[in-house]
Amino acid sequence: MINISKGVFGERVFKLAGIGALILLLVFFVGIVLAMLTYTDWETFWLALLSMEIIYAVTLSLFTATVATIVSVIIAIPVAYTISKSQFWGKDVIDSLLDLPIVISPIALGAALLVFFNTGVGAAINTHVRFVFAIPGIILAQITVVCALAVRLLKSTYDSIDPRYEQVGRTLGCSKPEAFFRITMPLAKNGLISACILTWARAIGEFGATVMLAGATAMKTETLPIAIFLSFASGDISKAIAVIFILIAIAIAALLIMRKLIGKRFAL
């Protein structure tokens, strides 16, 4: 009886601790949103929301994030599959190196890109396709930051797929590429969808590498995060809050779409 009582008490304490932590986190985030709502001058807010500068920032962010996501996922699919399903010398080292963009500050990555374009090879490349202080630089900075995330998400997906499915396909006459496209990729559909959406959402919010490589020029390289930076720098708090709410709306929409498409099964 004593052991049962202790077990019930411990279970209640554990449950209450979990609920308390959840409530604390919700209060924290709701408090931040309420602070922005109460601080906002709504007339100025709507004027800022409909300004040409913000419309340009939204359009540029959607375009660059979409291109960066497409390129990143195209690269990530074979890379993640190779790391997940193949054994080769130095695999652990290469796998760790691919995680560096996730843990290194985006500002450091942007600075490294900027240094590269000041070398002989980088300057030659920049002469033909301008990356520094230009829109292609935004896309390159976003790819540099989010490609590793796409690789990590897809690798987790491939790791969860039993290799025997491909082996059965091979015994039935499929070549390696046929087994990959006809068996593995359909099984990885949910993970691929979640990787695309999360990579895209991360690219939308990318700031550090972008501002280092492409700069922060209004109506030229002004993505949504850069618009927040420029708004605060000029003291236009209402415009900054308007952009923050746009980013929140995009993030919520992306998560809701992901849940709608693949349910609660996230390939993380």
Main attributes of the structure:
2 domains, about 80% helix, about 270 residues, MetI-like fold, mainly alpha
Topology:
Blueprint: H1 2-39, H2 42-49, H3 52-85, H4 91-98, H5 100-103, H6 106-116, H7 120-128, H8 135-159, H9 164-171, H10 176-187, H11 189-204, H12 208-213, H13 224-233, H14 237-262
Helix pairs in contact: 2-14, 3-8, 3-11, 8-11, 9-10, 11-14, 13-14
The CATH level-2 architecture of the largest domain is identified as Orthogonal Bundle
**SS content category:** mainly alpha
Globular, elongated, flat, extended or rod-shaped: what is the shape?
A: globular
Tally of distinct domains: 2
Structure notes:
This protein is mainly alpha-helical and 268 residues long. The protein has 2 domains: 1-39; 41-262, MetI-like fold, CATH 1.10.3720.10. Helix content is 80%, strand content 0%. The chain contains 14 helices and no strands. The protein has helices at residues 2-39, 42-49, 52-85, 91-98, 100-103, 106-116, 120-128, 135-159, 164-171, 176-187, 189-204, 208-213, 224-233, 237-262. The longest helix has 38 residues, at 2-39. The two termini are 42 Å apart. The mean pLDDT is 89.
